[in-house]
Structure formats: structure tokens, C-alpha cells
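Figure-free illustration: sequence to structure, shown twice.
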Amino acid sequence: MDQNGPSANFLRTCKKYDRYEDIMQFIEEGSTISKSAWKHECKMEIKSHEQYIYNLECEMYKKTTLLRQSNIEPIIWWKVCLRHLDYIRACTLMVKMLAGEEPLQINVAKYSSDDNPLCKACSQNEIESIPHFLFACPGLEEKRSIFYEHLYDLTAKAHTIIAAHDYKSVLLADFNISLDSHLHKLGQLAQSVLQMYYIRCSRSCQ
């Protein structure tokens, strides 16, 4: 039997929904049931199977929620926006990068006809990733100096973050400071990143 043919697919489906033995019995005994009766049995079996999977997933979800922390707080960039509306666009970009949905070539190449992940703002033939964008792209050097100024103003870890291209500490605002008392400075940091992104876009379109 052709393993990719309709008969093989049919038998695999029967196995999935526990109807394989019935089919074998029909073949061996030469007996059949009416089309409507068979359709009804299959429909009930599929419904029962899918209900079982659904219940199992719900049970797993209930168990995993027990592992969640009870003291969940809003992300820091949301707090910045709440206090300083001027930084909404900048904070939105920070959240997108944090979520891995940043509009850089490394992501754009996945979902568009332009499948080239290399940075268009410089001629270094480097993939335009978050570390490249924040710390390395020569085309953004001028605006990056402002980003670094705000970073040094916020944390004593700035030199270490820059040297290691530690973008996660930037996006998570892991600066060993009281974040709630530095919301304006965090907004300025996010705004400097947004300005870098604007320059990146203008250079990419040239």
C-alpha cells in the first residue's frame, strides 16, 4: 500500500480516533454498516477525542498557572508611558524589541519579500540584530552617543553593558536602581533609541 496514498491516510486517521479495529473487523468479516450510522459514529468519536484533548490542555494550564508569581507588576515601559505620554512611541519600540518583534531586518526578512537580514544602515555586512542596532552599527554612531549618555546617567553598569553588548539589561531596565523614581530618565533613554531607529530607517531607504 502506498504510504502516502488515500487508503494509508484513511487508516492513519482511523488509528488516531480509535476506529482502526472496526475497519479491520469490517474487512475480515465483510460486514458493513450504513453510511449514516458510520458517519454518526465517526462524528461522536472525533468529538470525544477533541474533548479529551481540550480537557487535558485545560488541566495542564491550571497546573502551570500555579507556578506563576502572584506579585505581577506592569512592565516598566508601561509605567513610563503612564507618567510621560511624550514617550509612548519610544516605549512601544522598547517593548517590541523586548518581545522579539522589533522592526529590524533580522525580523523583516522573515515576513517579507526582502529576505536579506543584513543591516542597510551601514556597509559592514552584519545582520541587523538588536545588539548590532544598539551598540555596533557605524551608521548610527552620532545618535548612539546620546543613547550612551543617558545610559551612563542611569546606571553605574553602563560601561559593562556597552562592552558586553548586553541589550537585555537595556530592554529590561536592569540597572540596579529604583526604576519608579527614574521614569523620566528611562523615557529619555527610550527616546534616544527611537531617534536611532529613525536614522536607521532614513539610511535604509537611501
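We now fold a second protein in the same way, so the two outputs can be compared directly.
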Amino acid sequence: MHDNLNLSKSTELTLESIDKFILQGQQIWNQYNSLVFSSKYYQIENIIICGMGGSSLPAHILKSTFRTKLPLQIIEGYALPSWANEKTLVILSSYSGETEETLSCAVHAEENQCVITGITTGGKLEKFFTGGGYTFCKIDPVHNPSQAPRYSLGYGIFGILRILSKLELLERYDEQSLEKEVSKALHNQMDYRHLLLVSLYLLPE
């Protein structure tokens, strides 16, 4: 697609990842169509999403796009609010699974007996999820050749959206109606890349 431009290899991979935003979304949305949560996940009273940098951007995009039935707070740091408890859903988002701040929040969430889920490609966070028996979405990043978290937005947005949908936490949408809207969005051929580039430019290093 970019063969006629004199680009570095890293730039080529970045542009390829951006071009594959839709494929990322389709992959993770369809992969976790049958995601199942235990009953405790449906007894929550508030939501926290923890992430840093490129792993927190999907949460900000979703919060500005959808209304949730319960209060939602995004944490970009080491600790959960003091009110987090067994009625709090904590969604841990770390592309690499090695983000220090998110792993710290994971420990706090477990100590506070929060209801835990999340999304990652692996690392220590995957071990935390599997070791604790927590339901989560594992990303197979075949459509992110750059391997940079900030270019994995399709995975992050539609992975977290799948979790919120399965837990019936979105206002105005039941699972069936959201399926139709997401299907439409993922097959839309409009040029979304300028919006992604602006969002990514605003991210801190």
C-alpha cells in the first residue's frame, strides 16, 4: 500500500497497523462472541478501567462514545480509589501485560476483593488472570505488525466493548442491537485513519 514512498521499516509497520484497525476490531470482537462471566460479574455497582498510555486510550474513547449503566472511572496510576470493593468491576488493560502501574492496580483489586477482568497479549498480567481464575480477553496481535500498544486501538476498543456488552453495562444497547451496530461499524469503508492519527499524536510517550 505504501510501496511508492521512501519510508523506514518502522514507519511502514506503523502505517500497516493503522490500516488494520478494522481487522483488529473484527478479530477480537468475533473471537470473544461466546465470552461467559460468572454471576458475581453481574452484581457490581461501579466500574474502573485501569491502563496507561496506548492501553488507556480505548477506555477514554469508549467513555466518550457510550453511556454505561453504572459509574465508570478510568485510572492511570498505581492505585485504585479507596472505595473500590467487592461490588467494583475492575477492567485491567495492558497490551504488553508488563505495565507496572496496571499490575499494581491488579494487586490492589485482588486485595479489595474486586470483580476482575481485562485485556492483554500476555506477560505478567496474563499470568495474574489465569492464576486467579479470572475471565479475560487475550489479544493475538496478528494485525498489529508494529507491536506498539498505541497502534492496537482496534483490539483495545472492541475488546473492552465486548466485555461491557456481555455484562449488559451499556445504556441504550442490548447485546443484539450492539451486535448490529458493531457489525455495521466494522464493515464501514469510511476513512477513519485521520482520526486515529490525531488521537495517537496526542498520546504521551
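Summary for the second example: Confidence is low (pLDDT under 50) at residues 197-205.
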